[in-house]
Write a structure and sequence with these properties.
By secondary structure, this protein is mainly alpha-helical. Helices cover 58% and strands 10% of the residues. It contains eight helices and four strands, in the order H-E-H-H-H-E-H-E-H-H-E-H. The protein has a two-stranded parallel ribbon with strand order 1-2. It has a two-stranded parallel sheet with strand order 3-4. Helix 2 packs across helix 4 and helix 3 packs across helix 4. It is globular and about 40 Å long.
Length: 166
């Protein structure tokens, strides 16, 4: 969450002439409900199954940049599937950066909305520790701490382009 997947992904796709798909937005469009509503009505398990099906749907598209949700890689065989379908990038950010970014949109995130700042930092730390083994299976790791200005985003687009050999 808030590693910059959508921010950099959308800007990168535009620069490279690719279609951009944010998985959360894709799911919301297909089911006409917000992720928050889906979590509340069906629970996380049902959401993760829905997310997996939608990942396989968009995984067959060509010339796309896909930003998955923060937990996508951690369920089912999703990380293996993504690696099989294309180049994958772990957008790595430190706890303080993620905390700062998450404070802005906390109310929109079902897993964070009722947490205090201290609980949120602890949650981020625990989630990163749990998710790192999945994230580290990505083809590439990209430092996403520097996406706070247009200049930093433009520089990151070029760095990512070079990393991916495009």
């Amino acid at each position: 969450m808030c590693s910059g997947k959508t921010t950099l992904g959308r800007a990168f796709a535009l620069k490279m002439g690719l279609q951009f798909i944010d998985m959360d937005w894709y799911i919301e469009g297909r089911f006409h409900k917000t992720v928050k509503q889906i979590f509340a009505e069906l629970g996380e398990e049902a959401f993760r199954e829905m997310e997996r099906k939608m990942l396989h749907e968009v995984g067959d598209f060509e010339n796309v940049m896909i930003a998955t949700g923060g937990g996508t890689a951690c369920f089912f065989d999703n990380v293996q599937y993504m690696n099989q379908q294309g180049q994958t990038v772990y957008m790595k950010a430190d706890v303080d950066t993620l905390f700062s970014r998450l404070q802005i949109g906390k109310a929109k995130r079902p897993l964070l909305m009722n947490k205090t700042d201290e609980e949120m930092k602890q949650y981020i730390t625990e989630q990163l520790a749990h998710r790192e083994p999945f994230y580290s299976q990505a083809t590439y790791v990209f430092d996403s701490n520097r996406l706070e200005s247009r200049h930093q985003i433009d520089k990151s687009i070029e760095e990512l382009r070079q990393l991916l050999g495009l």
